[in-house]
Write a structure and sequence with these properties.
Structural class: alpha/beta
Distance between the termini: 40 Å
CATH topology of the largest domain: Rossmann fold
Shape: globular
Radius of gyration: 18 Å
Number of helices: 11
C-alpha cells in the first residue's frame, strides 16, 4: 500500500516510516524542511513538502496514496489552542478528500483521563480541559466510518519514549531538573502516567492501517501508569539531584495536567490485534540515562 504520512520525520513518524517500509508499504511523507526530506528519503520514503497549515499539500498527499496516517501536531505547549485549531482544519481537509473512498485513515489521538479508573479503549475521549480539542478531533475522525472511510484512532499515552531521544511528558521533567538542579513532581506524586516505547507504538500504527475496522479505537499503552514521584526519582537518581514536590505552575502551561491521575490500559488492543510491546519501559529508559540536553 502507498501510504501518506504526516509528521513523517517527527518523534513518532521517524519510526513509523521505517516500520511501514519494512512491511512492504510505500511511504509519501509530509515534511517541512530539507533536512526532514533527506531523512525520509534515507529511510526509503518519498518526501512531500508541506505542513498541516498547507491544505493543498494535504489534498495532494491523499490523492497520491491509498491510505493515510496522521501524526503531525504542533506541540507548542505555550500556544496549544492554535496547534489544536491547525489540527482541526487539517483533519477536516483530509476527511473531505477521503470521503467515500474506502481508504484507511489512522489518526494519533490521546488516551483519555477517566477519574476513578484506568481508561480503556471503550472510554470516550477527553473533550474538556487544555487538550479537550484534541479529543473532539479524534471523535470527528471516528465518525468518518459512516462516510466511507476506514478510520481509526491510535490513542497515545503522555509519555512516548525511547532512550537518548524522546521521553514525552518526562522530557519536561528532565529539562526542568537539568535547568534547576531539582527533580520535581507535583503534589504528593501519586498521580500515574501511562507510557509506551515509540518503536512499539510504531508497530501499532502499522497494524491499525492494515487490519482495523472502521471506527476502531486502539490504545498504544505498554505501562498502565508509573507514579510521577517514581519518575522524578528515576530522573533525580541519574542526574544526582534532589527530588522534591513543586507546584504545577513550575512546569509552565501544561503543569496543571501534571497534577492529574491518568492511568490507561491497552489490554483490549493486545487481545484484539495481538500487539505486544517488547521494547524497554519508560522506567528502564529513564534509569539508563543518556539524556539529551533538553533544558
Amino acid at each position: 500500500m502507498r501510504v501518506f504520512v504526516t509528521g513523517a520525520n517527527g518523534s513518532i513518524g521517524s519510526v513509523v516510516v521505517p516500520e511501514l517500509i519494512a512491511a512492504g508499504h510505500e511511504v509519501l511523507g509530509l515534511v517541512r524542511s530539507d533536512a526532514a526530506a533527506a531523512a525520509v528519503s534515507a529511510a526509503g520514503g518519498t518526501p512531500l513538502r508541506g505542513d498541516l497549515s498547507d491544505l493543498d499539500s494535504l489534498r495532494a498527499g491523499v490523492a497520491r496514496t491509498e491510505g493515510v496516517i496522521n501524526l503531525a501536531f504542533g506541540n507548542d505547549w505555550s500556544n496549544l489552542g492554535p496547534c489544536i485549531d491547525a489540527e482541526t482544519r487539517a483533519l477536516q481537509t483530509i476527511a473531505a478528500a477521503l470521503a467515500g473512498s474506502g481508504k484507511p485513515f489512522v489518526h494519533a489521538g490521546l488516551t483519555p483521563m477517566m477519574p476513578g479508573h484506568i481508561s480503556t479503549e471503550e472510554d470516550p475521549d477527553t473533550t474538556d480541559g487544555p487538550v479537550g480539542g484534541r479529543g473532539l478531533n479524534s471523535q470527528m475522525v471516528l465518525t468518518l466510518a459512516d462516510q466511507g472511510v476506514r478510520s481509526s484512532v491510535v490513542r497515545l499515552p503522555r509519555s512516548v519514549h525511547q532512550r537518548a531521544s524522546q521521553y514525552g511528558f518526562c522530557s519536561v521533567l528532565i529539562a526542568a531538573a537539568q535547568k534547576t538542579g531539582v527533580s520535581a513532581y507535583v503534589g504528593d506524586g501519586t498521580q500515574r502516567w501511562p507510557a509506551v516505547n515509540r518503536v512499539d507504538a510504531a508497530k501499532l500504527f502499522r497494524i491499525a492501517l492494515e487490519d482495523s475496522a472502521p471506527g476502531t479505537v486502539l490504545h498504544a499503552v505498554a505501562d498502565e501508569g508509573d507514579t510521577m514521584r517514581s519518575l522524578a526519582e528515576a530522573v533525580g537518581g541519574v542526574l544526582a539531584v534532589p527530588v522534591e514536590s513543586a507546584s504545577p505552575d513550575s512546569f509552565g502551561p501544561i503543569g496543571r495536567l501534571f497534577a492529574l491521575d491518568m492511568p490507561s490500559s491497552g489490554a483490549l488492543t493486545r487481545k484484539q490485534f495481538g500487539w505486544e510491546p517488547i521494547h524497554p519501559s519508560l522506567m528502564e529508559d529513564l534509569a539508563a540515562g543518556d539524556y539529551p540536553a533538553l533544558g
